[in-house]
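ok posting inputs for the iron/sulfur cluster job
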Amino acid sequence: MQNLAEASKLKGETATISPIFPSYYARKWKERTTLTEQKRARIRADRLDTGFGSFRNVEVSIGRVIDEDWDEPMGPTPMPEVTTLRDWDHKLLKRYQPSYMPACQLCCLCTFGKCDLTGGKRGACGLDIKGQSARIVLAAANIGCAAHLAHARHLVDHLIHEFGPRTPLTQGEGVDIEAPVSRLVTGIRPRSLEDASSIIDYCETQLTHTLSAVHTGQEGSWLDFESKVLHAGMIDQVGMEIADLVQISTMGFPQSDPEAPLVEAGIASMDQSKATILCIGHNVVPAAAITDYSMEHGLQDKVDVSGICCTAWDITRHDSKAKIVGPISWQLRFVRSGLADVLVVDEQCIRTDIPLHAAKVKTPVIATCDKSCMGLPDRTNDDVDAIVADLVSFKVPGVFIGDHSKVGEVVVKTALAVKPKRKKKSSLPSKNKIKELAQTCRQCSECRRACPNDQPVMEAVLAASEGNFGPLVDVYDECIGCARCESACPNEYELHSWMVTAAKDRWMNESFKVRTGRGAIKDTEIRAVGQPVVFGEIPGVIAHVGCANYPDGGRAIHDMAEEFAKRRFIIVLSGCAAMTVGTVKDEEGKSIYERRTGAFDAGGVVNVGSCVSNPHIAGAAIKIASIFAKRNLRGNYEEIADYILNRVGAVGISWGAMSQKAASIASGFWRLGVPVIVGPHGTKYRRMLLGRADKAEDWKVYDARTGNQVQIAPAPEHLFYAVETMEECMVMTAKLCFRPNDTSRGRSIKLSHYIDLHERYYGYFPDDVHSFIRRESDIPITLKDKIHVHMKEHKWQEKPIPDPTILQRMVYGGGDG
Amino acid sequence: MMRAEPWQTAEVCGPKKAQSLEKPVVVKALLKKAKHPLLVVGANSLTEQTRKKSMIDYFIEFSENWNIPIVATAQTIKAFKEKGFKNVYSHNAMEITYLLTDPEWMVAPKKGPHDLVMTFGFPYYMEWLMLSALVNFSTEMKTVSLGRYFQPHASWSFPNLKKQKWNDALKEILTKNGGKK
Ligand code: SF4
Ligand code: SF4
Ligand code: SF4
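and the output
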């Protein structure tokens, strides 16, 4: 650097940054990084004369980020590679063993195959069904991680282009630990977009490795596949955290604001007198270009912008006047209704056949993301007015535009011009038409057989043929909008549209309020609740996250959230789950967000935001360890995960998890020691991580004070677990909040919730209560008599309350585990 | 009678496919042979409509007749407890599936290990996966799916029966008169 500076006749400030952390870790760091990565030199110059010419206000930066002002010592595992945390993973996987339910017993991934893996047979490459099942789990985690990471990379590059590499990053006031997951994993504090880019570089390298492990003839052990699943999940959390941090810092989103705006949601919230633009997907950049263009040109009275899926969250975080139509499962009904004048698709979870359905209602489609061009012509470099003219005259059904600054102008102009021409044309049939068509139903049941939720579609069609549309409305209520029924129908009935027509009164009037994503949890909030959470007096932090693959339109999520908020748990939400929870209103017409505070506190209902906001939930757990317990988090993954596993009663629930992204999100939580419950369709992830409560030897921890191994209750009992019903989910949620470190008061509070829910839904006093009682003071006072009888029956004996850890090296005075 | 093929679209299985349960007498033969059979019932048992009795009553009668313990998943256990029935155990569907892949595991002392497992009352896709775990990892175990629809991963399953026919078959298997040893 010095030479470059000299050679360039530098005039201005020069800074060379060197590692500041202790020599041991610096050595480790050096082993892992190249020389150029250890140092980042930045040169700022008012004027720079080089052989190529003279430049003003130049800024050059070379190398990787090392933070010279951060005095937190570097932990043992900055930027862990694929096997760095393998020991930790194996510890987790020994207690929480994978239980595989293969969806396929064949493998056809290479030309040696197809291979039959039934009955202990091995494929030509030597892989058996357990290895293959684990490999499929890794494939899913990789895909999910890649989707988020590519999204993060796009955001970072785009924002660097817009605002410059040194743009500072912030989560707002009251948040010093701006990126707890990134700090924990990489040892870096991302303070600028440029730092964010370096962190994404690291993530991209890791993902390449975990992805390569899926290739034929690489990994063969289920255990190591699973360890890589956890690695991909951890990397995913970092990528998502960076994605949300950079958009929060630069795009005017709420910054850790418990009172983030209440925004309008539901189809009726859209103003149909205006030209309506619907944005579907996850990447806010094109949607923001649209609202910005309409604001800059004073067109807000003429244009209404709304979203489906996470773009909906992020567009309302950018502009609280934007609307939320609903979750991912409402795409088809809304497109077919014809209410959108223009459709804008970005990335992830969009229906891949959107152009087909949009063409039927003459809604132009603008694809904006290189991941989903949808077969549309690339008009990125064409003149705006020429593109608009072609769309408005329906010469082309849609276009791909890769330049976001152009998207805003094209979309708004097209929406305004096409609205009077298409007149909200709908493809929904009339009831009369449905009645007529339904007469010829072949009663073949193919529709029902295709329905993932076993809906009585045929019966509803037969009722409609007699003019009774009630059963179609009932199916609509349970429908996830997949349209598999109509794909299967030999008569080619548009069955989903029939339901939507039958239920028109319902959805046309649907409007509700949701609190848009607040972003991170403030350090000050963590300071206030850290102790009660760790001691168990706030009985748990419950996160409802993920997609909308559930048949009940969000009622279950609402009822669970309300039940546990009433019990003074902290409820955190994100993604489509956070949307549908708002659809249920009380007698006064208020949604849960209007009834409850958005603060991270007992009884709070906290929407952090979109999919990429999930790390704020992981981050809250990490910050409890860091802020309340004063543990170093920098590059110190194992210790913090061990802390969370043993002390922080957090449970993730993904009631409608659908995607591979949901799989990688869950994997990131597992590695941190946070159990995750999925709804019934979550069984299709085909692998659970289950503890064996009946095996006492699996439930031992070190007491950090003495180094002795101590028997604990099975807590948390499972790491990944699918339930059949909402009732079961509630009982298990309460149980999965137990942690070995609970104080007696905390344990007694948690026990009283578990017992109460178990008695309510299972009809009897749970027969494992004695195993959670360590001493008399753990017993909830109101249940003392009952529990004493139970303890006697089970020959209960007092047990110690350890300072729990599963890492031998965390024993005071050392150890080498 | 419909063909013995998976009921739900695309839920095809691998090379090993269940035998079609044409005659309930097959189940009785399996029961007679089994040392430690187990019945696993899910929450759809609470809502499944049969002609006269609730499914829970059918299962209680069946359990008493053959002395078979029942695992009731989710809140299904409540319906059994309310009727004062004792030979019933609570497990989650994923949990019991996993436990049954352990050749040593038994639902209660001296009541296992289980060589015959009968299932009923889960969403189709969920039972499909549970039985996939058993067919792959409990290769010695026989499984019988008692639902109407063909479950390809069971050892034996009804071939998508019409409701009436299925009711008759169930009655024969589950009730005292139909199910005499
Ligand atoms: S990857 Fe292995 S198991 Fe799969 S087809 Fe190739 S040889 Fe067979
Ligand atoms: S569109 Fe609705 S009714 Fe049709 S298959 Fe999908 S979930 Fe079932
Ligand atoms: S698939 Fe079509 S024809 Fe067949 S029962 Fe259903 S609606 Fe009727």
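notes: DSSP finds 32 helices and 25 strands in chain A. Chain A touches chain B through 44 residues (CB under 8 Å).
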